[in-house]
Design a protein that fits this description.
Rossmann fold; 6-stranded mixed β-sheet; about 45% helix; alpha/beta; about 600 residues; Helicase, Ruva Protein, domain 3; 4 domains
Length: about 600
């Protein structure tokens, strides 16, 4: 029985005796006597998790309750309708989203006994022992009905039988199938299973009559994160005017367990901050405890150490590169602000106009012009998570593995939304189909990319940015509207842009008698990466002359120009300008003869 709220948590009460005996209803006129001593833990395992302990899963919780709590509390509803209640419910989703918590809360709120089954405690090397342990759990649950059996990490004890080598796993799956089929249709015992890999569970368990329903417990959205943070900070002394909504907005991709860890770490930051004022050998003064407050800075510092657990398989970051760190390219910046930053930061603008923002953007141009930096700056400006993918990371010689990697990337991007997926050198993984000699790997990757981009309606808040030096060899199906909607040329910098790039790369460099305006005029054909290399080389020349040098002089830049040569030219830009015309007409073609000038 849930009782008083004390120190931010619920103080549970247990009914040990009723008059009359049996099932009774507590009303306002019921006399309740509280014993002087707490009762010993019941032999029947119960949980003390309530629905108030679960945040951000309102819809999922409603679905679970109607399938589990209703049959346990009101079986007459199902009898009246002439249907059998579900025997099993499969909860799937990333780790830490609250699958176990939901199972415990439903068991507690419905007054059912709770039995948990974990893989290691069931599996045994001795013949028949694993199946016997399973049978014992189900038998015990039946004797103490109504009860809920919770199987955590179902894929570890019931994997697909055709994909496992061991005989034990196959026998356990067969035993579990038999036990599920043997459950009575009265709904007294319900099995809840949880997994992060629903596709790895044996298909026979996922049919109606066993695990009748499958419910995805996904990563919470902004409002869900706010609810979870409110739960984990309800007993925490926060400073005045603490803005939980701010942290709900910036914790993209965080699941409930991550937000719990974040709150705990913030409290530890507060404690460490107060330690110098504490004498651990003496009682802590009440006024010191009263003044102990968890601050915004404590949460910000904790945020540096707690990362989203569901997204650790894919490297996700929010880059620190800003617009001003990218010299020049003003026209390209304006386009990217319109096509990426605005849709992510202000999606209501597009909804109001009844239009869809671009799904994908292709940046193309000579190497070193700043395509990757632009993508990172866009992610930073929109406060979106940034997932950077390169060809070798998805290419695999095993059939199906490359496509699986692409699917995983888009799945993680959805969980981390708003997010930007950056495909660098996309021509290496998505060339024109039929022209490569790689046993069909790239063809399958292209097909998977097309499928993923076409399915972007479900990936709200995800934008794909790709970069290439060779747009003419990319599969043409990717370049049509609805996939990569906009093709943006990132040109070699003009005089004004070269001057701004020099400002960026010499901002922290101690210069003496260096005319940056004159230097910018002389760097025709130099792209951003060339200019960065030039500035670095000038500083290295100064240090070679004198290891104690404190200034970089004009002569050092003169020498650096003879070492660092431009990687672009008028012919190269003419090629890209002509290619731009072809792409805008929707007729990308390979112009190998012109590209030979560049290569």
């Amino acid at each position: 029985i849930q009782g008083l709220s004390l120190m931010g948590g619920a103080l549970p009460f247990v009914a040990v005796q009723t008059k009359p005996g049996g099932i009774v209803q507590v009303t306002e006129s019921t006399e309740i006597q509280v014993l002087d001593e707490p009762v010993k833990d019941s032999e029947v395992p119960m949980t003390n998790v309530t629905y108030e302990d679960i945040g951000g899963l309102t819809d999922e919780l409603l679905r679970v309750r109607e399938m589990i709590e209703l049959p346990l509390k009101h079986p007459e509803l199902f009898n009246r309708l002439g249907i059998e209640p579900p025997k099993g419910v499969l909860l799937y989703g990333p780790p830490g989203t609250g699958k176990t918590l939901i199972a415990k809360a439903v068991a507690n709120e419905s007054g059912a006994a709770f039995y948990s089954i974990n893989g290691p405690e069931i599996m045994s090397k001795f013949y028949g022992q694993s199946e016997e342990r399973l049978r014992e759990k189900f038998e015990e649950a039946s004797q103490n009905a109504p009860s809920i059996i919770f199987i955590d990490e179902l894929d570890s004890i019931a994997p697909k039988r055709d994909e496992v080598q061991g005989e034990v796993e196959r026998r356990v799956v067969a035993q579990l199938l038999t036990l599920m089929d043997g459950l009575s249709g009265r709904g007294n015992v319900i099995v809840i299973a949880a997994t992060n890999r629903e596709d790895a569970v044996d298909e026979a368990l996922r049919r109606p009559g066993r695990f009748d329903r499958e419910i995805e417990i996904g990563v919470p959205d902004r409002n869900g994160r706010l609810e979870v943070l409110q739960i984990h900070t309800r007993g925490m002394p926060l400073e005045e005017d603490f803005d939980l909504e701010y942290f709900a907005n910036i914790t993209h991709g965080f699941v409930g367990a991550d937000l719990s860890a974040l709150s705990r770490e913030a409290a530890m930051k507060t404690l460490r901050r107060m330690l110098p004022d504490l004498d651990l050998d003496k009682p802590i003064p009440p006024e010191l405890l009263e003044n102990m407050k968890v601050t915004r800075d404590d949460f910000l510092n904790a945020l540096k150490e707690v990362e989203p657990s569901a997204l650790r398989e894919v490297m996700i970051e929010i880059p620190r590169i800003k617009w001003e760190d990218v010299g020049g390219l003003e026209d390209v910046k304006v386009l990217l602000k319109e096509m990426v930053v605005q849709p992510i930061s202000n999606p209501e603008m597009f909804e109001r106009m009844g239009i869809e923002p671009p799904r994908g953007i292709l940046l193309y141009g000579p190497p070193g012009t700043g395509k990757t930096m632009l993508a990172k700056a866009v992610a930073n400006e929109s406060q979106a998570n940034f997932i950077s993918i390169k060809g070798p990371e998805v290419m695999s010689k095993w059939v199906g593995e490359s496509e699986k990697a692409v699917r995983l990337i888009f799945k993680k991007a959805k969980q981390a939304a708003p997010s930007i997926v950056f495909l660098d050198e996309i021509d290496s993984i998505a060339p024109k189909r039929g022209f490569s000699h790689d046993s069909g790997v790239t063809q399958r990757i292209v097909n998977q990319l097309l499928t993923s981009l076409d399915g972007m309606e479900a990936l709200k808040g995800v934008v794909v940015i790709a970069a290439t030096n060779r747009p003419d060899i990319i599969d043409s199906a990717l370049l049509r509207p609805g996939r990569f909607d906009r093709l943006v040329l990132v040109p070699a910098p003009d005089l004004s842009s070269r001057r701004k790039i020099l400002d960026v790369h010499t901002a922290r460099m101690p210069l003496k008698n260096v005319d940056l305006d004159n230097l910018a005029e002389r760097l025709e054909g130099y792209v951003g990466a060339d200019i960065q290399g030039l500035c670095r080389e000038a500083a290295m020349i100064a240090l070679r002359e004198n290891p104690k040098a404190k200034r970089v002089k004009n002569e050092h830049f003169e020498q650096a120009i003879t070492v660092v040569r431009p990687s672009s030219s008028k012919e190269v830009m003419d090629y890209y300008n002509s290619l731009q015309g072809n792409l805008e007409k929707g007729m990308p073609r390979s112009e190998k003869s012109k590209y030979d000038i560049y290569t």
